[in-house]
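Task: fold both queries, return tokens.
Query 1:
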Amino acid sequence: MSKFTDEDDALLGELGVEVEPVKHTARSPKEERIIAGFEDIQRFVEEKGRVPQHGEERDIFERLYAVRLDRLRELSDCRALLEPLDHQGLLDANEAPLAPVDDLDDDALLAELGVDSAGDDDVTNLRFVRSGAEKKAAEEIANRDKCEDFERFEPLFDTVQHDLDVGTRVTRPFVKDAGFLKADITQGQFFILSGQVAYVAEVGETIKAPNGETDARLRVVYSNGTESNLLLRSLQRALYKDEGGRRITEPNAGPLFADTNEDDDLASGTIYVLRSKSDEPYVAQHRELLHKIGVTGGDVQHRIANANLDATFLLADVEVVATYRLFNINRSKLENLIHQVFAPARMDLTISDRFGNPVVPREWFLVPLFVIDEAVERIKDGTITDYTYDPTSASLVRAD
């Protein structure tokens, strides 16, 4: 339908102006999605003042737009469809595409163009090979969508940022298999992944993974307004691999080791540091430096009650010189970790038990008490795995 009336047409005719009816061309859903994908690129250019670029350091969306623009420039059907809309001259840019178009992958290409691969018209007869960076971009973007109800979560991110600014929350490294950090991910937790704050909004039902581990589907919302639906183990692996991956503590969570615990804390035991009262010459000579370091889930006094009968206690009474309460920690892993750090200073001494059998105690170390205190502090802040003990300087040094 013309927007002019017959009288308008007559008047324009007298003025020498030709009037052509407005043409409405029906587009297929696939063409609409190609146009929508191109409009995303146009909006990026309007906001940033430049065309999207490739590169690992770029934002995920920018990397995807760069891949998409390369493809649109190469496909004659797409160019013909989009050229009337290309008021920024994006399709005629002189930049050569950074990814080769040799081998073909229909579904992946159409997904990057915003097109469903269902159907068999000629726009699907395409094949190409993506670079590693582009594959990574496509994989990441496939797991992140716009969070339609982000207004529900935005105040949470604002609160977390405020808490971090004032110090009521802190970030700690997400360390794999360290023993003292819980790797479990639960609903309501915050993490930092790829520079974005990630909030675990929902945790689905527990499922059994092929390797026998338990897993669950998560809804994770990010501070940039996107969200992903991924497996718990996938998020763990991503945090482990990300050098900047961190977990954000709860407000006023306090230290890992404390004299008191909250009702919902899981009391796991105590690190104890002992000195021997043995008269054995070597022990007596190094008494102030020689310490037994262990972890127990029970009462320390009960643990040392029969020390004089136990070769691991050097068949002598001991005194407790330090204890550290711990919560939510795997005791055996933590003890192994501590012994590994101080292994260079392990006492080399063989004694005979009550029955004359040779015993080599493994939990005694020639380490000053102040260094043990420092090690506990590094366990608290999650950096202990970066250190080992140097007997020469009697200090913790960064491991190679």
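Query 1 returned. Query 2:
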Amino acid sequence: MAISRRWTSLAATPLVLLLAVTGCSPSGSSSPEPAPGAPAATSAGHGAPRAEGSTTGTSRVPRRFRHLLPGMPPVIDRDVYARTGPADLSQRVRRQPALVYVPDSMPGGSSVTVISQRTRRVVRTLPVGLLSQHVVPSYDLRHLYTNSSVSNELVEIDPRTGRVAAHLPVPRPYNLYFTPDGRQAVVMVEEHDVIRFSDPETFHRRDDLRVPACRGPNHADFSANGRFMVISCEFSGALVKVSTLGHRVLGVLHLGPTSMPQDVRLSPDGGTFYVADMGTDEVRLVRGSRFRQVARIATPSDPHGLYPSRDGRRLYVSDRGAGRVSVVSFRSRRIVDTWTIPGGGSPDMGGVSANGKVLWLSGRYDSEVYAFDTSTGRLLARIPVPGSPHGLSVWPQPGRYSLGHTGNMR
């Protein structure tokens, strides 16, 4: 888990191409079916109608969009977030209550606090396992899973009712992801330095990957074609590039002795991974193809979470040690705005509301949750919650499918 100094001392935005690219899957067959619950082909992700179709099969398409992972939904208009705009709530989640799920990551914490997005008040407290880290949407958008590390379980929440539905045994789950084809779950067993590939429904183990250079596998994101993932290794100051199908290490990028990489998020154009480095107070930009750092953005203290805006133009960076949020332009790769919590705070992890108007973040060391107006940066609410709130999930969110974490939607 992320350890702050406070406690230890106690690519440019993609141009929307007007050419609607159609093509075929790598095998030459028709494009794979969209994930369950996908919106209709006429849904508008970022404002214009989107044409379905794989982006493979033409030399004019960048390599990063070719040879899609078999079975994954197609990338639209060369924009990995094209179907995560306000108009893209799937039929499966459209009638689900708009809630915020806040896990308590204190060693003795055993609850998820549920907040109404409308009233910004606590509506109930759910009993879950000890040391709950993140609340994660399933690939098919049917379930939410609380990663309860000390209890060695995933606690399933039914998003239709906002209540606990089941308990699934999983050793020391810290974070949870799903491959873009929906056929594998990836559990970050941070405590034991294990990247576990599992059945996405039962979570029975299929394969364990241990990388000597990766201590504390933590957060991740997948390439535009789904063929590999980039994983942050918090306690060894490194990133690892792992193949989705073969579970092989494709590369290791050492970031330095003071590095403590956290959240990872792919740029809309699919070319660059943004990595929040809490140890060096910067967001690192890493080219996925060559797996090397190409730029950096200096930030205030302890950058931790990364969340794209609903229009795909900006990236919200939670600066946990500074009590601020840095707003980064994908186009200029610069901070264009800074939101400050009056009186200070510790913004950590969270997500953006379905309509894009509110950014919700947990206050890791202040036992509260923050709600920011994304148009002005004004703090709308700070809501008291128990213990040490961590990887809160805002639900429902737009998208065809979930890659996991607190809502990495595509």
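Both queries returned. Flag for query 2: The longest helix spans residues 5-9.
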